[in-house]
Amino acid sequence: MDSGKGTNWELVDPRSGQTMPKINTLFLNQDNRNKFQNILHLIKIILKLSVSSAICESGFSSVKRIKTDWRACLSTETMNHLLSIAIEEPDLDNYDAEMALNQWWTQGQRKLQLRLDTPH
Questions:
Q1: 22 and 34 in contact (C-beta within 8 Å)?
Q2: Can you give the residue ranges of every domain in the chain?
Q3: Mean of the pLDDT values across residues 96-108?
Q4: Which of 5, 24, 46, 57 has CB atoms 3.0–4.6 Å from 10's, for a disulfide?
């Protein structure tokens, strides 16, 4: 919750990025901000709520793509990781495949242990 201190205090619609002049005018007064701080907090929560179900539908589609008959026994943790990757779509420009491969190789037991270092 913003403390309301300073001259630049205002509510901004996170979807459009525009200020909300009618609400801001009501809460320009420090006394009003203190008196109605719970209402201000509620307004900020409401502004962050999604107005459509597109995000939920995208999540359900991702689950359907990931959890096939061949992958029906995935653990909750693995499913959570795969869904995070599918939904958040990490930036491939900053992805370090060598680090990921090294982490995968060094964690856990592998059936066949190959040496990745070069011979001398």
A1: no
A2: 1-49, 52-89
A3: 82
A4: 24
